[in-house]
């Protein structure tokens, strides 16, 4: 329909080589292909109609040049035989695993880190025209960005700040893949593996820190207990009848724990009288 309108318009027709840049020979080939479709209609219509799914877009090439700056689809699209070719691009989110990368942290610790990156193609034309294999290129760039970003972090920062590091990697990937029509949705650090010697050293350090904390807590408890005993002795000193009561309470607790034990309570003043007799003798 477009070709018939161009040939029947009253104003002067633009030079063929100035439209889409296919040149005079290109327009001749396109016209012959269009005439071939008309001659073999309706059989040829089955070769011209293509179906593009909802999550796909088709980039159509006419004589090697992209037909439009915007991809076609979804639904039915028309292509001319012999002159038109098309490439389907999947726009769904892709999740790929970053293989384990051996890195050297800022504090000279060797570690193996792997992760997951999620991205999607938002411009099918850029993904086809600007890069050979957009998925392979994105994965390789994710590996390189992971190594570059983690190489500037210490082991403690690597273990504690995974979320911030993931955001840094995502920002680096976004800026690099923008010209490919790729939008990075999320980057996550999956696992961090360090050598066994470093694990044993970290375990020993953690155990020593725990023991130090336990000793401090025990010393604090002893100090509080000594203060409580001091206050209790002062109370018992002010009340002479309180010491026998405390003695009886202790005997009750011992009898409840060991029923077979026989205890003979003796008054405390008896020890005092015995001491005086030995002194007089």
TrEMBL record:
Q: Which SUPFAM superfamilies match?
A: Band 7/SPFH domain
Read off the InterPro entries from this record: Band-7_stomatin-like (IPR043202), Band_7 (IPR001107), Band_7/SPFH_dom_sf (IPR036013), Band_7/stomatin-like_CS (IPR018080), Stomatin_HflK_fam (IPR001972)
* Highest taxon listed in the record's lineage: Eukaryota
Q: Does the keyword Isomerase apply?
A: no
Q: Which GO terms describe its biological process?
A: signal transduction
Against Pfam families, the record matches this protein to: Band_7 (PF01145)
Q: What is a single cellular component term in the Gene Ontology annotation?
A: plasma membrane
| Ranges where the Band domain occurs | 47-206
List localization entries.
Answer: Membrane
Tell me the keywords, alphabetical order: Membrane, Transmembrane, Transmembrane helix
Q: Where are the transmembrane segments?
A: 21-49
Q: Kindly indicate whether the keyword Oxidoreductase belongs to this entry.
A: no
Family according to the record = Belongs to the band 7/mec-2 family.
Protein name (database record): Stomatin like 3
Q: Which organism is it from?
A: Ficedula albicollis
User: Gene name on record?
Assistant: STOML3
